[in-house]
Known about the structure:
Distance between the termini of chain A: 36 Å
Largest sheet of chain B: 6 strands, mixed
Strand content of chain A: over 45%
Structural class of chain B: mainly beta
Low-confidence stretches of chain B: none
Helix content of chain A: under 10%
Oligomer: heterodimer
Helix content of chain B: under 10%
Strand content of chain B: over 45%
Radius of gyration of chain B: 14 Å
Number of helices of chain B: 0
Distance between the termini of chain B: 41 Å
Number of helices of chain A: 0
Mean pLDDT of chain B: 95
Amino acid sequence: DGGITQSPKYLFRKEGQNVTLSCEQNLNHDAMYWYRQDPGQGLRLIYYSQIVNDFQKGDIAEGYSVSREKKESFPLTVTSAQKNPTAFYLCASTMGPGDTQYFGPGTRLTVL
Amino acid sequence: EDQVTQSPEALRLQEGESSSLNCSYTVSGLRGLFWYRQDPGKGPEFLFTLYSAGEEKEKERLKATLTKKESFLHITAPKPEDSATYLCAVQETGTASKLTFGTGTRLQVTL
C-alpha cells in the first residue's frame, strides 16, 4: 500500500527537550511538507522540501528544524526554542507544483 | 497576502437536508483550489482539486464548484457519516506548491 506514515501518533515532551517527529512516504513524491494545526486555526506551513538535500522555511519555521537526506523521509525536530509546541503536526507530500498534497495521519505533541 | 475564508464555521444538518459550504479566496493568480475532509484526530483526506472558474467535480453526495472569487462544496442528502471538518486550501501561481488553508467548516449530520 502506498502512503504516508507518521510516528509516533502521540508524543509527550518535557519543557526544554528536543523531539523528532518522523515522516516517511512510499509514493515516490519529490516534495514533502510539514504543517502545524491548532484549534480554530488553519494549517500553517513550517518547512517544505522540493528535492533531496534542499528545504525552505515556511511561515512559522522558528523553533523547528528539518533534514531531507532521503527522498522517502522528512523528519521534523521541535527544538526547545519553540515557545508553544503543543499542537497536531501533519506531514504531506506531492509529486510537484499544482499537484495534490496528500497527508499523513498526524502526530499530536503535548508539552508537559 | 493570500487569504482563505470559510463559512459557516459550523453547520448542523439533519440527514437528507442539503446545503452548501463556502470558501472565498484572495490570491493574485490561482493555480488550484483544494478541498479536504478531516475527521477528528486524523490527517486531511483529499476530495477535489479545481483549477479554473466554471469547473465542477462530483463524488458521491459532494459537488465542488469554482468561480473567480469563491468555491462551494454542495452536500446533497447528507448522511451521518458525512460529519467531519471540511477544509479549503488555495495554491497561488509562482509558489512552490505552498497551500494556504482556511479554518474549516465543522459539519454535523444528525438522524
